[in-house]
Amino acid sequence: MSENLLFNVLPRPTFRWLHVNHTQGQVLGATDERANVVINANAGVVTPLINTELVKATFPGVNPTALQNLISTGEAHLITVPANGKEVVIIEVNAAKRIASRFQFHVGDRAELEVLILMTGDAKDTSVETFTEFIIGEEANVVVKKVNLISEELQQIEHRYTKLADRANVEFINIEIGGKENILHFEQDLAGEECELIHDLAYLGDKEQKFDISMLMSHGGKKSKSDIHTLGALSDVSKKSFRGTLDFLHGATGSEGAEEDTCLLLDPTVKSVSLPLLLCKEDNVVGNHAASAGQLDKTKLFYLMSRGFSEAEAKHIIVESMIRPIIDRIGNEDIEEAALTAVRNKI
């Protein structure tokens, strides 16, 4: 797909002269021969997805054109967890060629689901495109863990939509290390009463890597809660853009939302853009947002160097200590070690 597209358009444009309302680019290798993913799950859990309609008709994804192209050219899977069921699903993405995969999850009432997505592969000049939809039933518990270790010659595009029913609990963990250009779009509908969603995302950029992250938390249910944390470090001429939106809709009374973006700048040539946005159409809600970007703490650096570490070793310790707590939550020793090795190699 060679045409220029607008990626991750902000729901409410602001400060147009700063050129932060969207990112312009192209989808690489969208017509190339593609590879399929491997899904490990119990028998009967995964079936072909026949219906190509979106769970939410107005969901734009990273870009509507790019999303429709993925749907029309990629593979599609339906993952179903019945009421009161408990399942673990492991998705292995090996990007030896272009990846274009759609996953639609239906999680029944009071069910439990854990999803682990591991992305690897060393293809060049093409894209890893994934589209996931989660429909979460009442009082269900879902944990989704994703580790991106693809080659820095690849473009990654991720579209993700989630809808929560009453008292549903969802936790997303993203570890974003690979990829030359990572364009990520997450939209969450907290439609149920007292539902809760937590999203933690860690990244580490070097060379010419780009991370373009969009998160939208739409609070529609009473006493719904959301919490966003993005944190990472940039070196060389890498770049990160974060667009986080908390949207309190009519009927969301008593709801709470928070978003925090933290970026460590390891070189003066990096660029970090943070645009937290708060929209509100309801009374009696709590919305908090914060963003920080800065260089290494010189006091910490001096302390570590006074204990015999070189400057490079001290920087390594500080960066790893920031990212490692999220990596440790993956719960798979081999994948955690692979992620830590990738972090250490980049630092």
Percent strand equals over 45%
Number of helices: 4
Q: Average pLDDT, to the nearest integer?
A: 93
Low-confidence stretches: none
Work out the number of β strands: 21
N-to-C order of helices and strands: EEEEEHEEEEEEEEEEEEEEEEHHH
Please state the structural category: mainly beta
Question: Judging from the principal axes of the Cα atoms, what is the shape?
Answer: globular
Q: State the helical fraction.
A: 10-25%
Report the span from N to C terminus.
34 Å
Give the biggest beta sheet: 10 strands, mixed
Alpha carbon gyration radius: 20 Å
Describe the structure.
The chain has 347 residues and is mainly beta. Helices cover 14% and strands 47% of the residues. It has 4 helices and 21 strands. The strands form 3 sheets. Strands 3, 5, 6, 8, 10, 12, 14, 16, 18 and 20 form a 10-stranded mixed β-sheet that branches. Strands 4-7-9-11-13-15-17-19-21 form a 9-stranded mixed β-sheet, with helices on one face. Helix 2 crosses helix 3 and helix 3 packs antiparallel against helix 4 (333-346). The longest helix is centred in the last third of the chain and has 17 residues, at 311-327. It is globular, with a radius of gyration of 20 Å. The model has no long low-confidence stretch (mean pLDDT 93).
